[in-house]
Specification:
With 280 residues, the chain is an alpha/beta fold. It has helices at residues 21-30, 47-57, 88-114, 119-129, 135-144, 151-159, 174-183, 200-212, 227-240, 273-276, and strands at 6-7, 35-38, 60-71, 74-81, 187-190, 217-222, 243-247. Helix 4 (119-129) crosses helix 5 and helix 8 packs across helix 9 (227-240). It binds adenosine monophosphate and manganese (II) ion (3 copies).
Amino acid sequence: MDSERVDLHTHSHHSDGVLAPAQLVALAQQRGIRLLALTDHDTTAGCAEAAGACAVHGIRFLPGTELTTQWRGREIHVVGLGVDPTEPGLVAHLADMAQRRQRRLAEICTRLGRAGLDGAAVVAAVGAAKPVPTRTDLARELVRRGLAADLGAAFKRWLGPGRPGHAPFDWPELGLTVARITAAGGHAVLAHPHHYKFSNGALRELCTAFRAAGGSGLEVSMAGMGPNDQSRAAALARRSGLAGSMGSDFHEPGLPWRPLGRFVKLPEGIVPMTERLGLS
Ligand code: AMP
Ligand code: MN
Ligand code: MN
Ligand code: MN
């Protein structure tokens, strides 16, 4: 399949995107996308709606999720593609992630309370609206309350490292998360390697550990990746035997740096993720 008509990393309002799954699919249709995965953070709640809308538009759909994990104490994201959202192990994993995210929301709001904010009101507003809350939902609530001008400012002032609302995370280990994805019939893809502040050596070790755990692909073509980022990712994929995945990490139409279905082409010599999924 032509990689320019594929997007394997997108978000809806079930996590920190703004569009409903059906709206996301309508936009995908406008952009000429033929194969779409919905990969909300730690939830598959939007997949049934997206699958229905894709069937109407004749778009091939892959149920997915972007799972938050840790490796060597650092946060790492793993995209699961083609998972069965009803598989009991995955269902249990996602229920646990929802609890972890609700606990983290409460912890962040306790800390915001110590900084003089109405933490109880913020936790109630965000936690009730979102079963699987993200920090973006919190940031939006802070903007709504006039406590930050925009999302970036909310992270900078309140939620980022060293700020009053920063809380330590407690995510499952990478290997366990990859095993959950494969047991649910999915393929695991290591997300956005250019986002991690790792040395080249540590990134190589991460990819080796990921492959050994059963990982299948690495994001090599993404919106927001420069030529250097891409050649580094391609070298990692070749070295560790991972296929090259492609996606926008789309969150909202207002963010021009992550446009749905638009990203650099896959370099030569990289096995496309679509081939590994049996879809090319
Ligand atoms: P979480 O997974 O709940 O920690 O939320 C992380 C999400 O927040 C990421 O997926 C990004 O979409 C968003 N995010 C992280 N840092 C920033 C930032 N500085 N500005 C805007 N959005 C951010
Ligand atoms: Mn996000
Ligand atoms: Mn991510
Ligand atoms: Mn993402």
